# Entry
Amino acid sequence: GAVVSQHPSRVICKSGTSVKIECRSLDFQATTMFWYRQFPKKSLMLMATSNEGSKATYEQGVEKDKFLINHASLTLSTLTVTSAHPEDSSFYICSAPGQGSDASPLHFGNGTRLTVT
Amino acid sequence: GQNIDQPTEMTATEGAIVQINCTYQTSGFNGLFWYQQHAGEAPTFLSYNVLDGLEEKGRFSSFLSRSKGYSYLLLKELQMKDSASYLCAVKDSNYQLIWGAGTKLIIKP
# Structure
């Protein structure tokens, strides 16, 4: 079945540095990818929708300059957390819509655990 | 506003049956999904309902009543590996997924 690969799975960085997270669709093309953030014991929070060949659509309250999204090709979307701070520590998950009908579920990457020290 | 409600936590015994409820109020409805999420991992798809009734998939079944804005996930013959969070998500009129906070299911021997 469809697979989404997300890398890295864990990253620890110092305050002020930037971190890039990659999300690849391995056996299908994804013109759209979704980036979520999840706090402990909380639900998924949609941060932005990544669109191949155009600007990402950010949800209300998400800083565009803080969370840079680039959808460079039909199989790759990246999220860069710029000038990271401890409050950015979280679990970030990307996903791509399934192919076909509305019944197709999202395919998720395995997530990235970001810790900012 | 849009809202999805699920119990925060449930406990059940290995081998037993458990029902996890989900109620929703959304702007439109284009299907309801159930996902399983183990701690520190990404969600995995369990089931999809768009019409009223019961969908059965092995040990797991999902029910939907659109008129009541209600769904449940039924897990039978519980196994220890079923300990996880179960997320209910609804596609609204814009086909955007609205997520519930998830139900943490604890299975005891």
About this structure: Chain A touches chain B through 19 residues (CB under 8 Å).
